[in-house]
């Protein structure tokens, strides 16, 4: 069983550095989420339609509803994670933030699997080039964001949570 060290065992300098990392990672999530949500919703507002939700030349609203049922809770998780990271984090709240970060990374990877499936479908149905490009960029961005989260968790967050290793 893993026991967490006493929160006061994190030196002040390391704690300050970790808080900067948390804020930086949170702002990166703001940029990622804003870009993704804006891009996805600008397409229909500009008059184009996603081929993944086209049925007999018209928008399949069941498909649109499915995407939103899947995406809105994940967006809510991202927003909660961002808010938690931008607020001042006490040493007592660090384990909660750590679990929330790991959950967000896993959820993002799962979300990326849905988007990669959508990309493969777009390739199969010969979707317009702009759609394939946007889906590819979205999947690539999600993988980069997953990588950033894993690096943040493994190099900053988990070492602070688990404390110094004993020889």
Can I get a quick summary?
By secondary structure, the protein is an all-alpha fold. Helix content is 75%, strand content 2%. It has one domain.
Describe this structure in words.
The protein has helices at residues 12-45, 61-86, 94-124, 129-162, and strands spanning 54-55, 58-59. It is an all-alpha fold and 167 residues long. Strands 1-2 form a two-stranded antiparallel sheet. The relative contact order is 0.15.
N-to-C order of helices and strands: HEEHHH
Unreliable spans: none
- What is the radius of gyration computed over CA atoms, rounded to a whole number of angstroms? 19 Å
Q: Kindly report the oligomeric state of this protein.
A: single chain
Net shape: elongated
Helix- and strand-based class? mainly alpha
What topology, given as strand order, has the largest sheet? 1-2
Percent strand equals under 5%
Largest sheet: 2 strands, antiparallel
State the domain count: 1
Calculate the mean pLDDT score and round it.
87
N→C terminal distance: 18 Å
Number of strands: 2
Q: Tell me the helix content.
A: over 70%
Number of helices: 4
């Amino acid at each position: 069983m893993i026991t967490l060290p006493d929160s006061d065992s994190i030196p002040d300098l390391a704690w300050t550095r970790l808080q900067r990392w948390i804020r930086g990672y949170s702002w990166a999530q703001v940029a990622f989420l804003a870009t993704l949500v804006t891009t996805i919703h600008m397409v229909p507002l500009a008059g184009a339609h996603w081929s993944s939700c086209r049925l007999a030349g018209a928008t399949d609203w069941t498909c649109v509803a499915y995407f939103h049922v899947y995406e809105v809770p994940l967006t809510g998780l991202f927003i909660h994670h961002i808010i938690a990271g931008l607020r001042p984090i006490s040493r007592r709240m660090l384990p909660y933030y750590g679990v929330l970060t790991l959950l967000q990374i896993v959820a993002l990877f799962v979300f990326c699997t849905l988007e990669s499936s959508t990309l493969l479908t777009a390739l199969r149905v010969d979707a317009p080039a702009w759609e394939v490009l946007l889906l590819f960029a979205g999947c690539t961005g999600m993988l980069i964001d997953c990588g950033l989260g894993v690096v943040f968790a493994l190099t900053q967050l988990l070492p602070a949570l688990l404390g110094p290793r004993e020889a």
